[in-house]
Amino acid sequence: MTGCPISKNKIDGNVARVNGVITLVIIAIGVFNSIFWILLTIDFFLRSFIIKYSPIANISKLLLNYLKTTPSPIDAAPKMFAARIGFMMSIVLIAVSLSGYYTASIYFAIFFSIPVFLEAFLGYCLGCQIYSVLTRLNLIKHKLDDTDFSSLT
């Protein structure tokens, strides 16, 4: 994310990218068993509001610690906003799937996978870009600086 800092809190950008890879795998598995989309929705909720309990984020952090990667600190607020978009998208994915529209759920899973792919493999956070534009336009003001991000630094 370029520009001035939006949040005093930082997270490791590498964790966000590994989260993306794991999320893509879960979306793909969910095509065959939608229970995985429900699990993904729960994890997005946790990443959005109670980050230290997110299984995907904790697995990502453990993997990166094992690989001894150098942390890449980035602003936390845009990532939290992006996770909340992911939470909403996963709810829609479940709703479409449980409504019996299998083909539509596949298309939506592909649509959902595009920003996740961009994050995981290109380090480009579409949700962060949306957050940046909305903040510059004063359309949103998040109070994310009180959130405990210590588990991801």
Question: Which properties best describe this structure?
Answer:
mainly alpha; two-stranded antiparallel sheet; globular; disordered N terminus
Q: How would you characterize this protein structure?
A:
The protein has 153 residues and is mainly alpha-helical. The protein has one domain (10-152). 65% of the residues lie in helices and 4% in strands. The chain contains six helices and two strands; from the N terminus they run βαααβααα. It has helices spanning 13-30, 35-49, 55-66, 76-98, 102-122, 126-136; strands at residues 10-12, 73-75. Strands 1-2 form a two-stranded antiparallel ribbon. The longest helix is centred in the middle third of the chain and has 23 residues, at 76-98. Mean pLDDT is 87; it is low at 1-5.
What is the tally of helical segments? 6
Strand order, largest beta sheet: 1-2
Shape call = globular
The overall number of domains is 1
Largest sheet: 2 strands, antiparallel
The proportion of residues forming helix, as a percent range, comes to: 55-70%
Contiguous uncertain segments of 5+ residues? 1-5
Radius of gyration: 15 Å
User: How large is the share of residues in beta strands?
Assistant: under 5%
How many DSSP-defined strands?
2
Question: Structural class of the secondary elements?
Answer: mainly alpha
Order of SSEs: EHHHEHHH
Q: How far is it from the N-terminal to the C-terminal residue, by CA?
A: 17 Å
In round numbers, the mean pLDDT is 87
